[in-house]
Design a protein that fits this description.
The chain has 14 helices and seven strands. It has about 300 residues and is α/β, with parallel strands linked by helices. β2 and β3 form a beta hairpin. The longest helix is centred in the last third of the chain and has 21 residues.
C-alpha cells in the first residue's frame, strides 16, 4: 500500500459564494472529476462516490481563535493536538515547546519506525539554505520533520534530475532566481509525483501558494493558483495506480476559500481521498473528525494493508 499526500496550505471549505470563494470561479476539471462535478462548500462538506470520498476535518481543534500553520501542521503531521497542548493557535512556525513533539512523533519518523519509506518531494534553492542557516527558528513543520527524520531537503540538483518538485510546480520561480532549468508542465509534475510514489510508501508534496493567494485577497491570483494545481492533479489522476495507492488532498486551516477577509478562517478543511480503499480511509478520518486523525490514518492504513498483502 502506498499513499501520496498533496498538502494545500490554507484551504478550507467555504460558502457557496462565487464572489468570495475562488473554488467556484476557477476551472477545475480534475478536482470536479473526483467529486461528481461538485466543489466542496459548507453546503456540501461531505461526499462519496465510486471514485473518491470527501470528508470535512475540524481545524479549530477545540481552541478559541483563528487556526494557524504552526499548530495546525503539527497536529496534521504528528497526530497530536498541538493547539490544545500550548493553549492557543500559533504560527506560521511551530512554537518552540512543540519541537520535541515534532522530533519524536512526526509522520516521517513514525513511518520509519514501522519499516516504511517516506519522501518529501519539494525542492529548495540555495537561497533557502542560506536563509535558514541564520534563522533556524523559521522552519516549518515539514522541513523540521525532515531534519528530525534524517531526510535531507532536496536541492536544485534533485530538481534537475527529476527527483523533486518545485513549490511553484512548473520551475518558473527557479528561472527568475537565475537557475538554468527548463520549465515543466503541471501535468508532468503530477506524473513525476506518481513516479516517486511508486518508489516510496509515502510521498508528500506541499503547495503553499494557496495560503499566499488567500492573504493577498486577489481573486485572479487565487484562481490561477488553483487552476495550476488542478492541472498537476490531472497528471496525478492520469497515472496513479489506484490498485495499490491512496491519494489524499488536505490542508491545515482555512484561508483561501474566503477572499473577503485577509486572515485565516475557522472553516473545516477538506480531506479528499481517491484510490485504494478511499472509503475506509475516510471512515477512519471521520471517527476523530479533525486534523489529528491524518497521521494515525496514514501510518495505520499503510501498515495494515501491507500486512494483508503479505498474507495473500
Amino acid at each position: 500500500m502506498k499513499v501520496l499526500m498533496l498538502f494545500l496550505d490554507g484551504v478550507g471549505i467555504g460558502e457557496g459564494d462565487a464572489g468570495r470563494n475562488p473554488f467556484l470561479r476557477a476551472d477545475l476539471p480534475a478536482l470536479r472529476s473526483l467529486l461528481s462535478g461538485n466543489i466542496p462548500t459548507r453546503q456540501l462538506p461531505a461526499l462519496s462516490n465510486g471514485k473518491a470520498t470527501l470528508v470535512a476535518l475540524d481545524a479549530t481543534l477545540g481552541v478559541d481563535g483563528l487556526p494557524q500553520s504552526g499548530t495546525g501542521q503539527t497536529a496534521l503531521f504528528t497526530g497530536a493536538n498541538a493547539a490544545r497542548m500550548i493553549g492557543k493557535h500559533f504560527g506560521p512556525y511551530p512554537y518552540s515547546t512543540l519541537r520535541p513533539l515534532i522530533a519524536e512523533r512526526n509522520m516521517f519518523r513514525q513511518l520509519q519506525r514501522l519499516g516504511h519509506s517516506a519522501y518529501f518531494a519539494n525542492a529548495y534553492p540555495r537561497q533557502f539554505f542560506d536563509y535558514i542557516r541564520e534563522r533556524q527558528s523559521r522552519l516549518t513543520v515539514t522541513t523540521l520533520s525532515c531534519g528530525y527524520a534524517a531526510m535531507p531537503l532536496h536541492t536544485f540538483e534533485d530538481l534537475q534530475h527529476g527527483r523533486a518538485i518545485s513549490a511553484d510546480i512548473t520551475n518558473a520561480g527557479w528561472a527568475r532566481m537565475g537557475y538554468d532549468i527548463a520549465s515543466i508542465s503541471p501535468e508532468e509534475a503530477g506524473k513525476r509525483l506518481v513516479g516517486l510514489s511508486r518508489e516510496y510508501d509515502f510521498v508528500l508534496f506541499e503547495y503553499w501558494r494557496t495560503d499566499k493567494a488567500g492573504h493577498a485577497q486577489s481573486m485572479s491570483e487565487a484562481v490561477a493558483t488553483l487552476e495550476l494545481f488542478d492541472r498537476m492533479l490531472s497528471g496525478v489522476l492520469e497515472t496513479l495506480p489506484v490498485h495499490d495507492t491512496l491519494l489524499l488532498i488536505t490542508s491545515d486551516h482555512g484561508n483561501m476559500e474566503d477572499l473577503s477577509i485577509k486572515v485565516h478562517t475557522r472553516n473545516p478543511v477538506p480531506a479528499i481521498l481517491y484510490g485504494r480503499d478511499h472509503r475506509r480511509a475516510a471512515e477512519r478520518l471521520a471517527r476523530t473528525g479533525d486534523l489529528t486523525a491524518v497521521t494515525p490514518m496514514i501510518t495505520g492504513f499503510v501498515s495494515e494493508t501491507l500486512t494483508t498483502a503479505q498474507e495473500i
